[in-house]
Amino acid sequence: MSTDDEDTAFYVGIAAQVTEHRVARGLSQRELAELCGTTQSAIARLESGSRPPKIDTLLRVAAALDCRLEVGFHPRTRAHRSTP
């Protein structure tokens, strides 16, 4: 998998989690946006997974959804590492 593919999968994964938690709490995109101090269109873009989300936006969304945001670094497999 290329780095671009990994990035896209990451964005889509975040989008799916935001949508899942929003729906589980019975919130519309507009209601979540109000809780986060942003717009409904910003939440729609985040949930589309088409762009890299900003960390500050994710922190506000996580707080509004009563969730913890976790970020981590994981080594790539040897096949993805470049040789020095």
UniProtKB/TrEMBL annotation:
GO terms for cellular component: cytosol. Gene3D superfamilies: lambda repressor-like DNA-binding domains. PROSITE patterns: HTH_CROC1 (PS50943). The keyword DNA-binding applies. Residues 18-73 form the HTH cro/C1-type domain. The keyword Glycoprotein does not apply. The lineage of its organism: Bacteria, Bacillati, Actinomycetota, Actinomycetes, Propionibacteriales. This is Transcriptional regulator with XRE-family HTH domain. CDD domains: HTH_XRE. One of its GO terms (molecular function) is DNA binding. Keywords: DNA-binding. InterPro entries: Cro/C1-type_HTH, Lambda_DNA-bd_dom_sf, TransReg_Diox_bact_type.
